[in-house]
Amino acid sequence: MAILGANRGDCDVETSGKGVNVGTRNAWLGRTCFALGLLAAVGAGAAARADEALDKAAADPNGWAMAGHGYDNSRFSPLTQINTQNVGHLRLAYSFQLASLRSNESSPIVIGDTMYVSTSWGPKFVYALNAATGERKWTYEPDIPDDVLQYACCDVDSRGVTYADGKIFVGRLDGKLAAVDAATGKELWVADVVDYKQGSVITSPPLVVKNLVITGFGGGEYGARGSLQAYDIKTGKLVWRTWTVPGPEEPNNDTWKGDSWQHGGGVPWLVGSYDPKTNTVFWGTSNPAPWNSAVRSTGNGDYGKLTNLYTSSTIAFDADTGKIKWWVQSTPEDAWDYDGVNELVLADLPVGGATTPVYMKADRNGFFYVVNRDTGKIVSAEKYVPTTWATHIDIATGKPAEVADQRPGPGHPVKGVCPNLIGGKNWQPMAYNPQTRLVYIPSNNVCMDWSVSDVTYHRGVFYLGGEFPPHPGPGGYLGQLVAWDPITNKQVWGVKSDLPFNGGVLTTAGGLTFWGDLHGFFHAYDAKTGAELWKMQLGSGIGAGPISYSVGGKQYVAVVVGRTVSLPAFLGDIGKAMVAATPEGGALFVFTAD
Amino acid sequence: MLRALLAGLAAGAVLIGAAPADQPAPLRLCADPSNLPFSSSSEAAAKAGTPGLYVEIGQAVASALGRPMETVWSLSYFEKRNLRATMLAGRCDFTVGLPAVDDFMGPNVIFSRPILSVGYAIAAARDVRISALGDLDGKRVAVQFATPPQSLVATRDAVTAATVMDPEEGMQLLAQGRVDVAFLWGPSAGYDNRALLHDAFQVTPVDGQWMRYDAAIGFARKDKALRDQVNAVLPGLAPRIAELAAKYALPTGPAVTLAAQTPALAATAEPAHGGDERR
Questions:
Q1: CA B177 to chain centroid
Q2: Is the dihedral of CA B107, B108, B109, B110 positive or negative?
Q3: Phi, psi (5° rounding) for residue A507?
Q4: How confident is the model at residue B80, as a pLDDT?
Q5: Handedness of CA A535, A541, A545, A546 (dihedral sign)
Q6: CA torsion angle B159 B161 B167 B172 (round to 10)
Q7: Quick one: which of A66, A343, A99 has its CA closest to A216?
Q8: Which one of the listed residues A334, A337, A402, A517 is annotated catalytic?
Q9: Quick one: residue A488, left, alpha or beta (phi over 0 = left, psi -120 to 50 = alpha)?
Q10: Range of the domain at A359
Q11: Within a 10 A sphere around the Cβ of B72, how many other Cβ atoms?
């Protein structure tokens, strides 16, 4: 009966107090409207005012207004000047050294004729460049403490910055959110979001909706309790905070055993999406903590109501208040490190004979979710990579049909579970092309064993580590750019790689799909067929998503390179190959066609 | 002439200062600057004569080898990452108090013979008797996030766990009467009990699966000769190490065995993100 309450119920009714959420017990899907830790009501006047500068930028077909192109995270550029006919003549327009090596994961943004790009290490720098020439306009060098690497679990990355209201917003590894003047780079305000010394860092750009700058943070493994937080665009003052792991006075706290909710993880550390029509912000949440699921649930998959909401989930928030409208939990009582953070790509798809507003999510758990974004009802959830831990997702309830002996737990090591903990897809962004109606997914094909390992060490205290030796997935490849039809749920074409964890994707109305790999090659494909039309070696592994824009009547394609360092350390010999493939790097390359 | 002689002496003095033959090179200890009872770089700790158990063991080792000691401070939030950036990068020579198992960063890290037995401990009022896991039933028990005691306690529905992020927080809960028992890392619980709580509680070592470990001194693989020198002096240092263990209030006495009915249920794990990177 998990669906109960998922798609019915008036928000006003469901806010009436404890116990009203009975209908959503045991719910992997659910719908309520309640405020979690609402700090301050947003003034109606302020909330009604959209940020005009951002709206204007987002409506400009020549620009790239947000990390994922727009609120929909489609990474689709409508520009056609560079196309299947001339992409073979792509040439370098300019390159720019980021002056910061390793783990450069930034998607630049382009507002008018200015590009804003962040570097790794804090970011160490944010640059404003003339987007046509690469000439530097200003440099912002935030005051990042030297010890941040100690606290950043998964490398010192920055995935980009956000523009609105004449400002550039920067989430930082030191747990702060900064606003700088977009014209000068001068720091305007800095807000404390989270204490990085608890292992929580900010690595992704915030989402600006109207007068609010919305951000999450990382550190789910290290005892953080997740929350999404909104700051006033002018002052940096906290406007609302919504806990993504509910406390005792909130609905669904009873999905946690004992006091485990206090350090339950579920952090929304990647990027959010926004649908203005319903004024809904969508964000994915990380896995729960600690990894021993017996501490927070039953430890054996027979979790009953102990599903650990809202971890490994997609949450729909009211943009003005932060109230949770509904959620879809993809991995209840997660035991595999299947974060649910992957970005939500919004599109209107013809399903069941009607145009349906959906979000699409290539979940780390190996299933590709198509969900009605107005209702939270699952349209489909099919495997897009080799996946062994569950046979299917019950789309009525959202409940995965788990495979016996594939759930690791206390005293229960497992072998050959796919995907491994980096997931069928990791943070690297996919792209959706409304013309081909295909989603281009930078996927991984890695499996793992899982067992308790020997002792490890944290500030003098010994404890036990998990051990999860990776294995190549079936078929003898480790990564694949998958062109996925989200309506028929079939792969249309694919490009295989001998390494996992390759770069993000860009697709364009010029019939092109761009993708960088960990060998440092930047490729252009025919978006329909997957035929490779162009490639170039850029000198270091590529993780970032490329972008495209037009300035002065000329279209450009840009990508940041500079491979990861920390992540391969989790992956044994596969990780060694990832590191050996290219040197560390840190550079922006911008191409055009004559 | 006199001037020339003085200049010569001055030059000689400079030379002598740099001469390794007369002044052995310092042994460089890798240590966390803010991690009592193990190590601290703070002036207050120095003034109190408690720079930390591992610092003082390091000094004893250096002194036995006839070498001065320097301390290279770096945070150990992710110890493996930290050791790669310090000891394995040649910035310091030895680390006291690492888990004495080859799987802990072996073969890049090599170990001395064990110097201490360390493990978890039960802190409680002196009239509270805990002799088996079942004795925790009905009690409020402070446990540190992601540690074996947290997992063990999770096997008992009748225990109310209070999860803390570090041992000091757990001992404070105990002192405030907000828990009945604190089931924490023994060296930390013992030290906090003495330094902060004036020995208000009894701290009893715990035995059982995942509860006790040998700690050793770690070196980079290339420093096998140094490791062998240290091994040679360690037997003679045993009394000094025991004295230091007592000074820092490491729990002593007979251990109480706490184990789950199904031993494997005590198994726990944390993902190796950062802290457990393997290369």
A1: 28
A2: positive
A3: -130, 150
A4: 84
A5: negative
A6: -90
A7: A343
A8: A337
A9: alpha
A10: 4-593
A11: 15
Amino acid at B76: S
The CATH number of residue A422's host domain is: 2.140.10.10
Tokens of A163: 């523009």
* Total domain count, chain A: 1
Retrieve residue A74's tokens. 């489609």
Going by the DSSP 8-state scheme, the letter that residue A520 receives in this structure is: S
B166 and B149 Cβ atoms separated by less than 8 Å: no
Residues 6+ apart with CB under 8 A from A28: A2, A307, A328, A329, A332, A397, A398, A399
Q: Which two tokens stand for residue A250?
A: 């909130």
Query: How large is the C-alpha radius of gyration of chain A?
Result: 22
**Contact between B165 and A456 using a beta-carbon 8 Å cutoff:** no
**Taking CA atoms, what residue in B is nearest to A451?**
B269
**What gap in Å lies between CA A24 and CA A29, rounded to an integer?**
8
Cα A328 from Cα A76, distance rounded (Å): 26
Q: How many CB pairs under 8 A join A and B?
A: 179
Judge whether A291 is closer than 8 Å to chain B, CB to CB.
yes
A175 neighbors A202 (Cβ within 8 angstroms): yes
- List CB contacts of A82: < 8 A, sequence separation 6 or more: A90, A508, A510, A512, A548, A555, A557, A592, A593
E strand intervals along A146-290: 162-164, 167-171, 176-181, 187-192, 207-209, 212-215, 227-232, 238-243, 273-275, 280-284
Angle between helical axes of B224-247 and B53-64 (0-180°, round to 10): 130
Mutation pick from B81, B139, B140, B276 vs chain A, by most beta carbons of A within 10 Å, is B276
Contacting residues for A436 by C-beta, under 8 A, at least 6 apart: A483, A507, A511, A527, A528
What is the 3-class SS of A200-212, one letter each residue?
Answer: CCCCCCCEEECCE
Query: What is the value of ipTM here, to two decimals?
Result: 0.87
Chain A from 457 to 476: CB within 8 A of any B CB: 457-468
Burial of residue A353, with CB atoms counted within 10 A of its CB: 0-12 exposed, 13-18 middle, 19 or more buried: exposed
CB B155 within 8 A of CB B258: no
Residue A26 has pLDDT above 50, yes or no: no
pLDDT at A10: 31
Q: Give the tens place of pLDDT for each residue, A528-578.
A: 999 999 999 999 999 999 999 999 999 999 999 999 988 898 898 999 999
Helix H or strand E encompassing B148: helix B148-153
A502 belongs to the catalytic site? no
Residues 6+ apart with CB under 8 A from A475: A386, A445, A496
A21 or A361, which is more confident: A361
Higher pLDDT, A451 or B12: A451
Task: Provide the sign of the torsion angle of the four alpha carbons A242, A246, A247, A249, taken in this order.
Answer: positive
- Give DSSP secondary structure letters for B152-198: HHTT-TT-EEEEESSHHHHHHHHHTTS-SEEEEEHHHHHHHHHHTTT
pLDDT digits (tens, 9 = 90+) for A213-235: 999 999 888 889 999 999 999 99
Half-sphere exposure (CA, 13 Å, Cβ side) for B62?
22
Hey, CA dihedral for B125, B126, B131, B134, is it positive or negative? negative
H/E stretch holding B241: helix B224-247
Check: CB of residue A520 under 8 Å from CB of residue A50: no
Q: Which residue has the tokens 């006919």?
A: A85
Judging contacts by C-beta atoms under 8 Å, the chain A residues touching residue B33 are none
Give the separation between CA A556 and CA A92, rounded to whole angstroms. Answer: 9
Q: Is the pTM of this model over 0.80?
A: yes
* Max CA pair span of chain B: 90
